[in-house]
Write a structure and sequence with these properties.
homodimer; alpha/beta; eight-stranded parallel β-sheet; three-stranded antiparallel β-sheet; 13 strands
Chain lengths: 395, 395
């Protein structure tokens, strides 16, 4: 069968704020082939990602992503890899391409799974799935008192692991950060796993990050996430050598190599991959395999919908030793409502990706329509994209 | 003064083909501040790069590039660095951002130079410029006979260095490649420098690239350029260890770190930077400084206009030991006609960046208008970009 159509749906909350909450909009992707439909999600700027699918060709190595996808053969996982390799060459100079391709790639896996009647994790070669312990992922409060309340609330929902991120950390003085870290631990109690994410705030400044290590060790943080720019490998390595707290990073990786380098040169203890950015499920699985071989723990990065969550769990679903997963705890209504079913914790407090074919997630079409944004892109006297003129406008 | 306006002009040849010729379109950027105007050029997909400037915000770390630029203070080089740092945080999750920002950054340097009455290379701290030996940069012919003719033609124009790239190399069998390399050397004669660029064709396959090393050594190639994906550092390192021909790469770097890693981990002998992609002149200068400290040669990557050429020479204009430069030899009419003046070879066959304020390049407005492409981008019920509604439509 051939890939007949790829449609993009830009969804957004009515109001988008500057908070570091990635669930305020979404780019949903639908792929049709041979009577089947697959769904995926890009974790990226929706408008720019759509533009990268439809833009005019600039030259042989700067072609739109769509040129490598539409009309291609799709029968087996190898076909997805073949298309990915073609994009790597033909869209080499189109920087946004991996972010666009990620959502399409995920949809292709979903479609292939539905066609074969198998969950994606089986297509990836796993025989079984192992439950992952979800950590409630949320932003720090504006004040330590607020952080404390958020910690208490997460514990009240029986989360055994909680991550706090971004917010005021690294933007004020050290003492404020210390108070936030202590408030988080106090609110969570002694036994709850605590992770801390500082969203690249220290750039490549090793000493600024290192100043936070003693307090992070004191509150028993499992990891310090993204102290630096994704590519500041030397800074990662220098901070890793301090040894007191393991480092985590990788959500910014937009290809396999970037993740590999964070492991080999940055010496992270946890490699965090967003399938919606790295080029989809294929390269994420390759990172999971590589991490196992290097004794590094693979963790998903997911801050949006349960469609993205299912896609992000597939790459390491069958790895028993990688048992932590990020779980969007308090996403915006759009991300909650986008899917009809959700990955809920079992009696052991763990989640597994669905056994249903593909990604096992159903789109809530009514909700998707409600958040749909109208988009029109024209260039060279052609309408390149119109949200009103897609194959089937009914989401 | 404040940055008052940033306008983008998408220019294109009437026909764009799949050949690897990056001069088939261009994204010209004009910045206005305090009564001055600066010009820059992005080496990237024009439509996608415009979208990254105007797109709606997705969240605090995925803001449009424009949000960090418009209205900002611009008095000194530090201001450009400050804006760059803000984009690094506020557009962290917008993959296309560095490609968009590059052209804007270049225009800001041009404007600052004009305001101060100084060439950009002086603003960068250089006291003098040193002539660069331009290599005529062109694509391989479709056949070895054609490659031979192209080599003869370049020599007839007195180029003392010539680079052949892309085309059929690595796409057929080894014997064909051998014939192309020999044809190039025969056409150039004994004394002309010969560089070979294979445009990432070997992905990360070290042995496929290594099979070409003996013939490249035989024809005396100065370097083998881009055998692999920009981020395939291990493959670069493995091929470097073979030792027979120096490696060159880096045009795909979209931040300082990527160039640094090609030097430190990939062990390239020549680091090639496109100021229109890496984030502009500032990070390119940082790479030039780093390369000097590591005994690696800095070379510009430029395949488009002389505006881009001047911008790409500034970062290493004052480094005497880096004496080779890429010179767009046979660009499309658009790239030739876009500027009123050109960087021509002196009696010694060398070129230097202009002594005139800024980048010292004048835009040919009539030509720019002739190649202008109409673009309109609408989302969320707003016109985000219209080529007809810019500050001043007269280019």
């Amino acid at each position: 069968m051939k890939i007949e159509a790829v449609d993009f749906f830009y969804l957004s909350m009515p109001e988008v704020t500057t908070e570091g909450d990635g669930s305020q909009d979404a780019l949903l992707v639908r792929v049709a082939a041979g009577g089947y439909v697959g769904w995926g999600e890009c974790e990226a700027s929706p408008l720019v990602s759509i533009a990268a699918f439809v833009c005019p060709m600039s030259h042989g190595a700067c072609r739109p992503v769509g040129a490598s996808v539409l009309g291609q053969r799709l029968e087996r996982p190898d076909d997805i890899q073949r298309i990915a390799a073609q994009i790597e060459l033909d869209s080499m100079d189109l920087l946004q391409a991996p972010h666009t391709w990620s959502g399409v790639e995920i949809a292709l896996w979903d479609l292939l799974g539905k066609m074969r009647g198998e969950p994606v994790w089986k297509l990836l070669g796993y025989w079984a799935t192992y439950g992952k312990l979800p950590y409630a992922s949320q932003l720090f409060g504006d004040t330590p008192a607020e952080t404390y309340q958020l910690a208490v609330a997460a514990r009240a929902q029986n989360f055994r692991a909680v991550k706090f991120g971004w917010g005021p950390i690294g933007r004020g003085n050290l003492q404020t950060d210390i108070e936030h870290f202590r408030a988080a631990r106090e609110g969570l109690g002694k036994d709850c796993l605590l992770m801390v994410d500082v969203g690249q705030i220290f750039g490549h400044d090793v000493e600024a990050a290192a100043a936070r290590l003693p307090i992070l060790a004191e509150v028993g943080a499992v990891w310090l996430e993204e102290p630096f720019h994704t590519s500041a490998l030397d800074s990662y390595a220098a901070l890793s050598r301090r040894g007191t707290v393991k480092l985590a990073g990788g959500e910014g990786a937009h290809n396999f190599y970037m993740a590999q380098h964070l492991i080999d040169y940055g010496h992270v203890g946890f490699i965090q991959i967003d399938t919606g950015r790295i080029g989809g499920i294929g390269p994420a699985k390759r990172v999971a395999d590589y991490a196992v071989s290097k004794g590094v723990r693979f963790v998903n990065h997911t801050f949006t919908s349960h469609l993205a969550l299912s896609a992000s769990l597939q790459p390491y679903a069958g790895v028993r030793t990688d048992e932590i997963c990020e779980y969007p705890f308090a996403p915006k209504a759009l991300a909650r409502e986008l899917t009809s079913n959700h990955l809920l914790r079992d009696s052991d407090g763990r989640i597994v990706p669905p056994d249903a074919p593909g990604l096992g997630i159903e789109i809530n079409h009514e909700a998707a329509r409600r958040y749909l944004v109208e988009v029109e892109i024209k260039a060279k006297n052609k309408v390149l994209f119109s949200s009103n003129a897609q194959t089937d406008t009914s989401v």
